[in-house]
Amino acid sequence: MAIVTALAAKAAELTAGGVGSAFRRLYRLIRDRFGTGTPEASVFAAAMRRPDDRELRADVADALAGMMVVDSEFAGRIRAAWRDTTVERGGVVNHFNGRAENVLQVRDISGDVRFGQ
Predict the structure, then answer these.
(1) CB-based contacts of 10: which residues, under 8 Å, 6+ apart?
(2) Secondary structure (3-state) at 37
(3) What is the pLDDT along the chain (117 residues), one digit of tens a residue?
(4) Residues sharing a CB contact under 8 Å with residue 99, sequence separation 6 or more, in sequence order
(5) Cα(60)–Cα(30) distance, integer angstroms
(6) How far apart are CA 93 and CA 2, in angstroms?
(7) How far apart are CA 26 and CA 82, in angstroms?
């Protein structure tokens, strides 16, 4: 889900060519693997057009995960491209999976962080 969320957040920049080459490579890997005219391609395109639609992102993440299970070479290329995007973003990947009342994911903090009152 993290990969799809990151791509969806950068969707406008991807189509305008305003993001780094690692994100473009990751986007193209997924787009090309999903093909054209397939249900996966349709939901991927819709998720890129509507980045705030969590259900669409989940559908893309499920399709991507399924393809990565059946195609280990593709899975390796996706993982490598995802690692490359980490470098472009300053070397930090925030990932949370589970249940929590509040989650704070940051890189650099200047000053205090306070939770509660």
Answers:
(1) 19, 23
(2) coil
(3) 677 777 766 665 665 555 567 788 888 899 999 999 999 999 999 998 888 888 998 999 999 999 999 999 999 999 888 888 765 555 555 566 677 777 777 767 788 877 776
(4) none
(5) 10
(6) 9
(7) 7
